[in-house]
């Protein structure tokens, strides 16, 4: 690999404990408020409280008509009222965009897909990224549209960034349960991703070890 290091804002979080003389307590991360989830889009993902997670899971199951026994393995939340959800279990599925409303209700908005049978997930190798499925984000009553990317990340990976080319900021991906995901709004001049003909940016996905060093990279 190139030896590139993680952007400073993320690297500091990963290595701060190693710099202290005494073992540091992990930082307390509070779940996002409804105001954050429905407010401005953010490059950093938000933590969901269990109630919102359950609503997202239920809304996705309903939106793409998944059977009982399917559960959310990953929910990416970073403001603008958008949640993207990867489901697994009796059937695999993806909700490209759900909308969280001001009262905390979660409803369908964009598209998605579902498989025809049970999913047996093969974990990604320790420090490898596998796949980078891209989707359009938007629809329903959402006030924004954009793109997303989602794939698997080995359990030896400490952080993942998504770098859309063409003037977009680097995005810190949600990383959980061996999966990564991130979405970002379209820039003015790129067109509406849902209308067809929009200029989809090329994306570089990078994986980092706990020291902030790049251990894998894929382009899509």
Q: In summary, what is this structure?
A:
The protein has 3 helices and 13 strands. The protein has helices at residues 8-19, 34-38, 50-63, and strands at residues 70-77, 82-89, 93-100, 106-108, 112-114, 129-137, 146-153, 159-164, 171-172, 174-176, 179-185, 203-208, 214-219. Strands 1, 2, 3, 4 and 5 form a 5-stranded antiparallel β-sheet that branches. A 4-stranded antiparallel β-sheet has the order 6-7-11-10, with no helix packed on it.
Describe this structure in words.
The protein is an alpha+beta fold. It has one domain (35-219). Helix content is 14%, strand content 35%. It contains three helices and 13 strands; from the N terminus they run αααβββββββββββββ. The chain has helices at residues 8-19, 34-38, 50-63, and strands at residues 70-77, 82-89, 93-100, 106-108, 112-114, 129-137, 146-153, 159-164, 171-172, 174-176, 179-185, 203-208, 214-219. Strands 1, 2, 3, 4 and 5 form a five-stranded antiparallel sheet that branches. Strands 6-7-11-10 form a four-stranded antiparallel sheet, with no helix packed on it. A four-stranded antiparallel sheet has the order 9-8-12-13, with no helix packed on it. The radius of gyration is 17 Å and the shape is globular.
Q: What order do the SSEs take from the amino end to the carboxyl end, as H and E?
A: HHHEEEEEEEEEEEEE
Q: Give the strand tally.
A: 13
| Low-confidence region ranges | 8-21
The 3D shape can be described as: globular
C-alpha Rg (nearest Å): 17 Å
Mean pLDDT, to the nearest integer, reads 89
Structural class of the helix and strand makeup? alpha+beta
Number of structural units classed as domains: 1
Beta-strand proportion:
35-45%
Major sheet: size, sense and barrel closure? 5 strands, antiparallel
Distance between termini?
18 Å
The proportion of residues forming helix, as a percent range, comes to 10-25%
Annotation field: number of helices = 3
């Amino acid at each position: 690999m190139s030896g590139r290091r993680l952007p400073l804002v993320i690297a500091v979080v990963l290595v701060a404990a190693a710099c202290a003389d005494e073992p540091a307590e992990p930082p307390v991360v509070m779940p996002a408020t409804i105001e954050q989830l429905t407010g401005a889009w953010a490059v950093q993902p938000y933590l969901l409280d269990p109630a919102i997670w359950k609503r997202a899971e239920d809304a996705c199951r309903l939106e793409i008509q998944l059977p009982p026994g399917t559960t959310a393995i990953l929910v990416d939340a970073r403001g603008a009222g958008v949640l993207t959800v990867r489901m697994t279990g009796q059937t695999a599925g993806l909700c490209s965009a759900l909308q969280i409303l001001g009262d905390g209700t979660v409803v369908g908005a964009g598209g998605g897909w579902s498989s025809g049978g049970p999913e047996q997930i093969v974990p990604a190798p320790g420090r490898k990224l596998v796949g980078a499925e891209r989707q359009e984000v938007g629809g329903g009553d959402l006030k924004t549209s954009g793109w997303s990317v989602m794939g698997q990340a080995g359990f030896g990976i400490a952080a993942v960034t998504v770098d859309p080319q063409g003037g977009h900021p680097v995005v810190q991906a949600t990383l959980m349960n061996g999966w990564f995901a991130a979405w970002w709004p379209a820039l003015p001049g790129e067109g509406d991703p849902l209308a067809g003909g929009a200029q989809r940016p090329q994306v570089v996905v990078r994986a980092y070890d706990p020291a902030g060093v790049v251990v894998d990279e894929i382009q899509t």
